[in-house]
Each structure stands twice: as structure tokens, then as C-alpha cells.
Design goal:
Elements lengths: L3 E10 L2 E10 L2 E2 L5 H21 L19 E3 H12 L3 H20 L3 H4 L6 H13 L7 E2 L2 E2 L7 H4 L27 H13 L5 E3 L3 H7 L1 H4 L3 E2 H16 L1
Antiparallel strand pairs: 1-2, 3-8, 4-7, 5-6
Helix pairs in contact: 2-8, 7-10
């Protein structure tokens, strides 16, 4: 039986520090296996942020059936892409085929708009950061995982989707670039933390990939998915990167 180590740490939230304790098996571990921990940290911070908003008299306006934000450009870390792709691989064949067809249709549209190179830019150049999200949103492309205006991979959704929550009227989300939205403050974007950790461990540039092309991104970075690190050491590396981002 592998050793199981309990690791306790605090995260800073809008309502003060919160303690988290997790059990970690000290076995060879892939970067994708860190994603549930990142999701847990995000959820803890988000719960506090939403509670803080309610203390100020502001209620969350996001709800199932409102998929306006699911037409935005969502950039995620390589570990998250590998994690989502792994979850997709466990689905029935017909559902996998449905998502693959949707992703292919998005890629085809991006090709026609001559946007493929920028959307798949692994280093997310500064000019891309400034202009791409608005251009992408204007195409009106729904996320490949959006079904009946709700997320069909909700439990596996990446951290940018988890921490995008609003208290402004939902009708304003139809054009987030023309309207002023009230976003619930996100203390720490875990996607960036995972991206920086990956870059440091594999000695490569910090990379983000589009959620709308997640299967393609996962295949591109399959070599990273095959690498492992001792489980306890890897989690401690994540916590070190988390502390750096919070400081």
C-alpha cells in the first residue's frame, strides 16, 4: 500500500484565511492529477467570495440555463486540458463524437475567420490577450460543452469557468464588452498557478490553451501527460506556486 500523507494548508479568501486538508498518496503523479486540488482551492475561495457579496446585499445572478458567458474565449492550463480530455475519454462514444464534432465546427469557423493561429497560440502573446477575447465573443461560438444553455461537464469544468460569477443583471451578459458587469472578485486564478508550475517543472514557456479545442490541445501536450513526479513532492510544488501567487 502506498503511503498516504495528510497535507494541511491555508488559503486567503475575502472572509479571511480558510484551512484545507487533503490526503495525498505518495505515488508517481501526473500534472493532471493536481487539477482536483486546484478546483478545491478555487471552490473554497469562491464560496467565501459569494458569501462576502451576499453580506453586501448582492446576490449571484448566474444560474443553470444562462449560458451567455459560455461563448467567451476560455484559456486554460495544460494540466486542466489533460484533465478535461481524460474525463471526455470516459464518456459514451456517442457523446464523445458529439463533442468532437462541435470542436471541429469551431475550428472550421476559426479557420474561415483566419483566427486559428492566434487562438492556438501557446504563449498567448500580449496582442492576443488584448484583442482575441472580444473578437472570439463576437463570433457567437458556443462552448462545445454547452447543452441547453447549461454546462454538460459541470463537475469537470476548469477553474476560469468556476470563478466567473456575476451579480449584475443576467441580460447584460449578452454583450460583456458594451455593458458594465459586476463580477464576483476572484482572489487567485488557479489556471495561472497551474500554468506557471507546469512551465517550471517541464522547463518550457508558460502556456495556455483554448477550452474549445481541448482535445487537440491535450494531444499536442501528450508528452507532458506521460511525465510523473512523486505525489507528495508535486503537491508541495503546487502549494509553493500558490503561495508565490498569493504574496
Amino acid at each position: 500500500m502506498p503511503d498516504v500523507v495528510k497535507i494541511a494548508f491555508d488559503v486567503v479568501t475575502l472572509l479571511g484565511p480558510r484551512s484545507i486538508a487533503i490526503d495525498v498518496e505518495d505515488v508517481p503523479t501526473r500534472l493532471a492529477e493536481l487539477v482536483p486540488i486546484a478546483q478545491l482551492v478555487t471552490d473554497v475561495m469562491l464560496d467565501a467570495a459569494i458569501a462576502h457579496e451576499r453580506d453586501q446585499g448582492r446576490e449571484l445572478s448566474c444560474a443553470a440555463g444562462c449560458g451567455a458567458c459560455c461563448r467567451q474565449y476560455v484559456a486554460i492550463s495544460i494540466p486542466e486540458a489533460l484533465y478535461v480530455a481524460e474525463a471526455l475519454a470516459q464518456l459514451p462514444a456517442d457523446q464523445q463524437s458529439l463533442y468532437a464534432g462541435r470542436m471541429a465546427a469551431i475550428a472550421d469557423r476559426l479557420g474561415k475567420e483566419e483566427m486559428v493561429d492566434r487562438v492556438l497560440d501557446p504563449t498567448v502573446a500580449p496582442d492576443t490577450i488584448r484583442t482575441l477575447p472580444r473578437e472570439y465573443f463576437q463570433l457567437g461560438l458556443p462552448c462545445p460543452f454547452l447543452t441547453d444553455e447549461s454546462c454538460s461537464i459541470y463537475l469537470h469544468r476548469p477553474t476560469p469557468c468556476r470563478d466567473h460569477n456575476l451579480t449584475s443583471p443576467p441580460e447584460l451578459c449578452r454583450d460583456p464588452y458594451a455593458n458594465e458587469l459586476r463580477k464576483v472578485p476572484s482572489p487567485l486564478p488557479l489556471t495561472a498557478v497551474l500554468a506557471r508550475l507546469t512551465a517550471r517543472l517541464v522547463e518550457a514557456p508558460s502556456t495556455l490553451v483554448p477550452l474549445s479545442q481541448v482535445t487537440r490541445a491535450a494531444e499536442t501536450h501528450r508528452e507532458i501527460d506521460q511525465r510523473t513526479w512523486p505525489g507528495v513532492a508535486l503537491v508541495k510544488e503546487l502549494l509553493t506556486e500558490l503561495a508565490r501567487a498569493a504574496s
